[in-house]
Amino acid sequence: QPVVYGDAISTYVRSVRLALEEKGVSHTLVAVDLVKGQHKEEAHLVRHPWGKMPAFEHDGNSFYEVSAILRYIDEVFPEPALMPATPVGRIRVNQVMSIVDSYGYAASITNIFIPRVLVPSLGGQTDEAQVEAAKPQAALFLKEIGRLLGDASYFGGAAVSLADLLVLPVLTYLRATPEGQALLAATPSIEAWMGRMSERGSVQAVMPAN
After folding, report:
1. Which of 13, 32, 161, 168 allows an S-S link to 156, with CB 3.0 to 4.6 Å?
2. Are 101 and 68 in the same domain?
């Protein structure tokens, strides 16, 4: 069965585990403690040269980079499909995934959640300027994925896609900040989408506290 290396609190580890849950595929999570810095230790650098997570092993093959892992899971375990059947649907999913990787994660996690929540929890002080500077980018991220969602239930249309599984853990942490709550309140379609996602068995299994 697949092996996922990473911390259960990591957004992208959660995305991979959500995909496996949606497919009904059992997996093993090998803990790599973010707070203790285990992702920067040699044992993990062998799996991921940049010391990020998750890393992934299956059937004698090893991979890293969350989007690549998600696409592998969808191809190797075909049911239910987590990519739309149409070219336009697939490119929309790929577009949203790229937006998360290129812009949304940094704005939401690196520059709002981490300084606002994680740093203080470890005894540090929030860099208010960092958070303030990130708010317009986080707002743009939410506005644009809201536009791309449109009137659909999910980013790929009527069924959950890889894009939904990549976006949700990021926005769950963003929502844990006062800035994120205000930004999400201004994007009601995304708030409603988060409500739909929270009802899924995969989300309740991987992110039960959220």
Report:
1. 161
2. no
154-179 as b/e: b if 16+ CB within 10 A: bbbbebbbbbbbbbbbbbbbbbebeb
Judge whether 54 and 12 are in contact, CB under 8 Å.
yes
Tell me whether residue 207 is in a domain.
Answer: no
Condensed to tens digits (0 to 9), the pLDDT of residues 37-85 reads 888 888 889 999 999 999 999 999 999 999 999 999 999 998 999 999 9
In a domain? residue 103: yes
Same domain, 105 and 184: yes
Cα separation, 75 vs 105, in Å, equals 25
Q: What is the greatest pairwise CA distance in the chain?
A: 49
C-alpha pair distances (Å), 146 with each of 51, 154, 195: 32, 10, 14
Residues sharing a CB contact under 8 Å with residue 21, sequence separation 6 or more, in sequence order? 201, 202, 205, 206
Phi, psi of 200 (to 5 degrees): -75, 145
